[in-house]
Design a protein that fits this description.
This protein is of the alpha+beta class. It has one domain. The chain contains four helices and three strands. The chain has a three-stranded antiparallel beta sheet with strand order 1-3-2. A hairpin with a 2-residue loop joins strand 2 and strand 3. Helix 2 packs across helix 3. The termini are far apart.
Length: about 90
């Protein structure tokens, strides 16, 4: 599989799933720190444990976390990803 820290996310020490977040709870500081302040789709997909293609589809359908375009590159702000996870927990 390669270096687990290749994209700036050490998945050996990070375990985040939307099913484990409950209403009124917040993600741990360690889990939030695993996501870079401005993450690529690859880093965010590793953090969320979903394929990059899933993020692409979510962007197309308007379902996933907010994203930014930096030139032609897609980036996700850490705060937007964490806020989106909290919204899922509230639903």
């Amino acid at each position: 599989m390669g270096d687990p820290t290749r994209y700036g996310v050490d998945m050996r020490s990070t375990s985040v799933s939307t099913g484990s977040v409950r209403s009124g709870s917040t993600l741990s500081a360690d889990a939030a720190a695993a996501l870079p302040p401005l993450g690529s789709p690859t880093a965010v997909s590793a953090y969320l444990d979903v394929p990059v293609g899933t993020l692409t589809q979510w962007r197309y359908r308007g379902l996933g976390p907010k994203f930014l375009k930096v030139g032609r590159h897609v980036r996700y702000r850490r705060e937007d990803v964490l806020a989106w996870l909290e919204e899922l927990a509230q639903a």
